[in-house]
């Protein structure tokens, strides 16, 4: 009877064991599926950015040769340069996500990884400069802004790139300094955010980006409201209304590509290890800012005389 009872208990526990085993297998399959879906999404995003961004850069180079003394033109010229430097690093990202293997040294991994962050912040600063100039011009605070000599335009560009050249190497040097180096894995520098100064700097940058994005959006909304209030139903026929449409495209890029990442990043920094994969997808979305060249080029066909 005793042996029979033990045997009965053994068989009774068998379904539970099978259930646990099935649960583990299901969990493993789910994780593999999620990892594959993430890699496919990242490869798709970066491939699209590489193709569309490259076409946009080529098209914009021809457009920007028209007036190299305009503040807006110079700002877009610098924007093209930033995109070019970033686009060069994208094939390495595509290769890594396709192979799940990093065959290059860890320093180059840090360079490629940091470039997307440098690109994101420099692009945002240039967007703010362009929008601010246009907003001031609309409110008649400044006249049409042009450089009197080409040397002045060059000096403006040099001042922007001087900051990038100084900040860039410092960022790369300290980027991932406390992370574990790996010759086969890349883009896993989340542990760096556990350092107090790094965490504080990232929070500051994200909060500032969100705040300035809200300010730019509110200013543009105010301008559109004033124009509609002034012209009413005939606003669509006004040249200045269509001039603002390019500002709308820049603000939409900011709100759709940059703000979501920074909002999520504030949440990501509360649980870095668990949200690493999702953060990579949001970070990849910021690279869609490279589409701005195509939007601006398309806008030339709508209203080729709208830019100030």
Automatic annotation (TrEMBL):
Topology term for the membrane: Multi-pass membrane protein
Keyword Transmembrane helix recorded: yes
Gene Ontology terms for molecular function: G protein-coupled receptor activity; oxysterol binding
The keyword Transmembrane belongs to this UniProt entry's keyword annotation: yes
Annotated Gene3D superfamilies: Rhodopsin 7-helix transmembrane proteins
Subcellular location: Membrane
PROSITE patterns assigned to the protein according to its UniProt record, in alphabetical order: G_PROTEIN_RECEP_F1_2
Keywords: G-protein coupled receptor, Membrane, Receptor, Transducer, Transmembrane, Transmembrane helix
GO cellular component: membrane
PANTHER family (alphabetical): G-PROTEIN COUPLED RECEPTOR, G-PROTEIN COUPLED RECEPTOR 141-RELATED
The protein, known as: Putative G-protein coupled receptor 141
Organism annotation: Ictalurus punctatus (Channel catfish)
Top-level taxonomy: Eukaryota, Metazoa, Chordata, Craniata, Vertebrata
């Amino acid at each position: 009877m005793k042996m029979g009872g033990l045997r009965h208990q053994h068989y009774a526990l068998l379904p539970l064991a099978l259930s646990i085993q099935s649960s583990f297998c299901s969990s493993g399959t789910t994780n593999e599926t999620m990892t594959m879906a993430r890699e496919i999404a990242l490869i798709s995003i970066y491939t699209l950015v590489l193709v569309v961004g490259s076409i946009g850069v080529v098209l914009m180079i021809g457009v920007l040769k028209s007036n190299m003394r305009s503040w807006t033109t110079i700002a877009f010229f610098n924007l093209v340069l930033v995109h070019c430097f970033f686009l060069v690093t994208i094939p390495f990202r595509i290769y890594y996500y396709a192979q799940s293997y990093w065959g290059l040294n860890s320093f180059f991994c840090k360079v490629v990884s940091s470039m997307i962050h440098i690109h994101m912040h420099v692009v945002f600063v240039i967007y703010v400069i362009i929008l601010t100039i246009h907003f001031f011009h609309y409110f008649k605070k400044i006249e049409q802004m042009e450089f009197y000599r080409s040397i002045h335009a060059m000096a403006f560009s040099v001042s922007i790139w001087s900051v990038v050249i100084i900040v860039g190497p410092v960022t790369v040097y300290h980027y991932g300094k406390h992370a574990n180096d790996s010759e086969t894995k890349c883009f896993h520098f989340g542990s760096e955010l556990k350092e107090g100064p790094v965490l504080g700097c990232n929070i500051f940058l994200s909060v500032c980006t969100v705040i300035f994005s809200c300010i730019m959006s509110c200013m543009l909304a105010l301008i559109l409201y004033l124009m509609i209030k002034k012209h009413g139903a005939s606003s669509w026929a006004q040249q200045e209304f269509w001039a603002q449409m390019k500002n709308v495209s820049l603000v939409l890029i900011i709100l759709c590509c940059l703000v979501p990442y920074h909002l999520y990043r504030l949440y990501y920094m509360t649980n870095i290890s668990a949200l690493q994969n999702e953060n990579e997808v949001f970070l990849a979305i910021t690279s869609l800012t490279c589409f701005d060249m195509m939007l601006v080029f398309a806008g030339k066909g709508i209203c080729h005389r709208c830019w100030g």
